[in-house]
Amino acid sequence: MPITFDTLDELKAFYRNFRLEEKGGNGHAKLVAPAVEVEKVSKRGRPGRKAALPKVADKPAAKRGPKPKATSAAKAAKPKREKGETLTSKIQDSVRKFLNSNRSFTANDIYDDLAQRDSSINKQSVITSVLKQMNSTFKTISVTERAGNGPRPVKLYNA
Questions:
Q1: Four-CA torsion 55, 61, 66, 72, nearest 10 degrees
Q2: Would the CA dihedral through 10, 15, 21, 27 be positive or negative?
Q3: Rounded to an integer, what distance in angstroms lies between the CA atom of residue 132 and that of residue 137?
Q4: β partners of residue 155
Q5: Phi and psi of 124, rounded to 5°?
Q6: pLDDT tens digits, residue range 131-146?
Q7: 6: CB partners within 8 A, 6+ apart
Q8: Cβ(114)–Cβ(126) under 8 Å?
Q9: 94 or 38: which leads in pLDDT
């Protein structure tokens, strides 16, 4: 069905709000959706008065930003754990114990120390967390490597 326009203003408004995209081959033009919602221009109105044309944004619609963060009320509802209960705090305490006594240690030594106090801890979690802690919280501690039983060398942290 062809599109017809009663006035030149309607035709200009149409071209401002829609893009025509030519398809190669068949010669037909394809309508592309407008970037801004177009209000219908009323054909009826007072004589001698121009119909208000919809305003077109010069820029295309902006991309959405990041999702809003959770409100502080949601965070406040979650009770904070005591410092001594987390695995991270237990590991940090054990590392500080080795550092205060000026002893060198490995991640396995930290696990052995924690396993004496609590046998329900996971060895892989402790070793992974020790390596992360030593790269962030205790990054000033010197590190050497020695041969281990596996394919990778063992990191030895020097006090």
A1: 10
A2: positive
A3: 8
A4: 145
A5: -65, -40
A6: 998 888 888 888 888 8
A7: 43
A8: yes
A9: 94
